[in-house]
Amino acid sequence: MKKICGLILMALGVFSVAGQCGAGEDAPPVETIIARSNHASLYQGADAQGTTTMTITDKQGRTRKRQFNMMRKNTDAKDAEQKYFVYFIEPSDVRRMVFMVHKHVGEGKDDDRWLYMPSLDLVKRIAASDKRTSFVGSDFLYEDISGRGPEEDAHELLETTDSYFVVKNTPKNPDAVEFASYVAHIDKTTFLPMKIEYFKDDNRPYRVIEVMAVEPVEATENGQRVVYPTVVRSVARDLESGGQTEMVFTRIRYNAGLTDDLFTERYLRRAPKEVMQ
């Protein structure tokens, strides 16, 4: 018999729903939830591109902006290997800077990451140990941009509500990260992670990423019209520093026919027209 809870006020401050305590009898296996969430948030379409406007706000309310174009291409059909190319447009001090990732998924595999700094005409390899550091001075991390591999964590379904699967994720290699665990609120319809809370060893939350808006984006896949639920605005908050960063995504396009050669080192210094448009 299902045990019924009272009204649960979601931390998003948007939904107040009657939830079911515990994991729920009708929930799919947690591995299925995580796999579908990983696909929805990172692997929709064969490729994708768009423009991101980032607003960084510190504790005193001072703001800085970054704008960049990004291309992403899946390089296998297993929601694993991917390539990313990020080309910075604004402000002038970061214009033409490039961040490129060749993502590798699997136990013991590290992503290949490059950063081109035009002011120094320098290409720098980003070490695996740096993936949990700030992305261009924002409250998002390098790993937030290309995603964290599901195999890096152990997953536990804590609760099923009317709207969300609530999943706790614990790193298998805790020495490699700064968090003890994180809890994801995964939308039961779209499987997009709508809120992620990161916790320290004392179970103290110190970092939160929230999706603020989702929109349907139309595309063509194998000759058929498809619609991808797509995050168009998200916010990362540092609860320790009091800062936050908002990312707004525009001009999103899926299945553009991006080729592998666009994601090579030769384009770090001379970005392809596909990412500059």
From TrEMBL:
<keyword id="KW-0732">Signal</keyword>
<dbReference type="Pfam" id="PF17131">
    <property type="entry name" value="LolA_like"/>
</dbReference>
<protein>
    <recommendedName>
        <fullName>Uncharacterized protein TP-0789 domain-containing protein</fullName>
    </recommendedName>
</protein>
<feature type="domain" description="Uncharacterized protein TP-0789">
    <location>
        <begin position="81"/>
        <end position="270"/>
    </location>
</feature>
<dbReference type="InterPro" id="IPR033399">
    <property type="entry name" value="TP_0789-like"/>
</dbReference>
<feature type="signal peptide">
    <location>
        <begin position="1"/>
        <end position="23"/>
    </location>
</feature>
